[in-house]
């Protein structure tokens, strides 16, 4: 195999790009504002441990995962940075405390059950985070719950509130600016009221990646970033300032020469109207390239030229049209990465970069570069 060429479908993870993105986002906030890096879902489909280790090396203040199991994997890898569990479940409360993870408490049931476990495990000032719902309507206490939550927590020795936070619903969409500003103002009101009743001042955070870029005046004591760290800012202008961390590459397994009126793939979804040359690539919907990308919707790059996916995506293979492209078996194909945005690839199937990035199967080889 020639030097520098991959031999199989590979997701390359560029830590130099990650550091660049982190430094760019940090430049948008005050020096004393804390930074939380979101590494849930295998660090947006890349490699959670590798990304977390790099973030820790760069001095990030907090990490965030969705579930306790993700946090435990990071602790097993030696990560010492505080880890916020965004969606803890009661069945994992013992594990959360045993692994020094910090839960988001978002409902009366969750609050009561965690208090009970913390007391049973003889905890003192165990750090927790209180989430308030300001309009996303997904998780969180309502503003009307402020008195109740503060009363439940006041003078409790078992736990201590490390932060109070919320989540913006449409921070990337400037047409929704009035809604976002209303969320921010609601959060200001909630956090001020809650802090007064609690008797001490936890950190506050509500900005995600687009919030950092569009509403820096609301950075409070900490901000959170997920997709921006991985190279996407929900805006073409911002994307130009960021660098994709993950590049999905594969190789040509076989080339076929298709005659007129011949068909390609399952259900004969593609019929050739003229002689075509096709290339079969070793990845499919089991690797995260869903059927919605087939039949000309999306394409890959081979030698810098677009090769559209033709026919239906198979479980382990896709076929692309390489008519007019000088290529041969073993040549590399880029699905997305530095020269082909995952956002653009996803948009061809009416979805977003988050989905294609997090969909990449764990059976795809990971290769870390730029260490």
Protein traits:
8-stranded parallel beta sheet; 12 helices; TIM Barrel; alpha/beta; Lyase, Ornithine Decarboxylase, Chain A, domain 1; 5-stranded antiparallel beta sheet; 30% helix; 371 residues
List the helices and strands and how they pair.
Blueprint: E1 10-14, H1 15-26, E2 34-38, H2 40-45, H3 48-58, E3 62-65, H4 68-76, E4 83-85, H5 93-98, E5 102-105, H6 108-120, E6 126-131, H7 146-153, E7 159-165, H8 177-198, E8 203-205, H9 209-214, E9 222-225, H10 236-239, E10 246-251, E11 254-258, E12 263-264, E13 270-271, E14 276-281, E15 299-302, E16 305-310, E17 318-321, E18 332-336, H11 342-347, H12 353-359, E19 365-369
Parallel strand pairs: 1-19, 2-3, 2-9, 3-4, 4-5, 5-6, 6-7, 7-8
Antiparallel strand pairs: 1-10, 10-18, 11-14, 12-13, 14-17, 15-16, 16-17
Summarize the structure in words:
It is a single chain. With 371 residues, the chain is of the alpha/beta class. The chain has two domains: 33-230, TIM Barrel, CATH 3.20.20.10; 246-369, Lyase, Ornithine Decarboxylase, Chain A, domain 1 (Beta Barrel). 30% of the residues lie in helices and 23% in strands. The protein is built from twelve helices and 19 strands. The protein has helices at 15-26, 40-45, 48-58, 68-76, 93-98, 108-120, 146-153, 177-198, 209-214, 236-239, 342-347, 353-359, and strands at residues 10-14, 34-38, 62-65, 83-85, 102-105, 126-131, 159-165, 203-205, 222-225, 246-251, 254-258, 263-264, 270-271, 276-281, 299-302, 305-310, 318-321, 332-336, 365-369. The strands form four sheets. Strands 8-7-6-5-4-3-2-9 form an eight-stranded parallel sheet. Helix 6 (108-120) links the parallel strand 5 (102-105) and strand 6 (126-131). It is elongated.
């Amino acid at each position: 195999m020639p030097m520098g060429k991959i031999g199989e479908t590979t997701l390359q993870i560029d830590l130099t790009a990650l550091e660049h993105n982190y430094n760019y986002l940090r430049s948008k906030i005050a020096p004393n504002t804390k930074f939380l890096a979101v590494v849930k879902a295998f660090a947006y489909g890349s490699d959670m441990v590798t990304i977390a280790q790099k973030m820790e090396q760069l001095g990030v203040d907090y990490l965030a995962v969705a579930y306790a199991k993700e946090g435990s994997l990071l602790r097993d890898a030696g990560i010492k940075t505080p880890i916020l569990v965004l969606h803890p479940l009661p069945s994992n409360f013992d594990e959360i405390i045993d692994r020094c993870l910090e839960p988001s408490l978002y409902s009366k049931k969750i609050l009561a059950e965690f208090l009970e476990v913390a007391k049973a495990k003889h905890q003192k000032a165990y750090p927790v985070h209180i989430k308030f719902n300001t309009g996303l309507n997904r998780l969180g206490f309502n503003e009307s719950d402020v008195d109740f939550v503060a009363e439940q927590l006041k003078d409790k020795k078992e736990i201590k509130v490390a932060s109070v936070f919320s989540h913006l619903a449409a921070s990337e969409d400037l047409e929704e600016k009035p809604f976002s500003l209303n969320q921010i103002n609601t959060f200001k009101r909630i956090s001020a009221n809650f802090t007064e009743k609690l008797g001490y001042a936890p950190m506050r955070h509500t900005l995600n990646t687009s919030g950092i870029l569009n509403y820096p005046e609301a950075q409070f004591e900490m901000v959170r970033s997920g997709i921006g760290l991985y190279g996407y800012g929900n805006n073409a202008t911002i994307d130009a300032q960021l660098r994709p961390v993950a590049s999905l590459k594969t190789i040509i397994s076989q080339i076929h020469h298709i005659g007129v009126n011949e068909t390609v793939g399952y259900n004969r979804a593609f019929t050739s109207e003229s002689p075509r040359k096709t290339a079969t690539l070793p990845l499919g919907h089991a690797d995260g390239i869903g059927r919605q990308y087939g039949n000309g919707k999306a394409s890959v790059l081979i030698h810098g030229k677009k090769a559209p996916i033709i026919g239906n995506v198979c479980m382990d293979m896709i076929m692309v049209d390489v008519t007019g492209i000088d290529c041969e078996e073993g040549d590399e194909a880029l699905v997305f990465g530095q020269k082909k945005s995952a956002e653009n690839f996803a948009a061809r199937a009416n979805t977003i970069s988050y989905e294609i990035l997090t969909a990449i199967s764990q059976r795809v080889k990971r290769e870390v570069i730029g260490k």
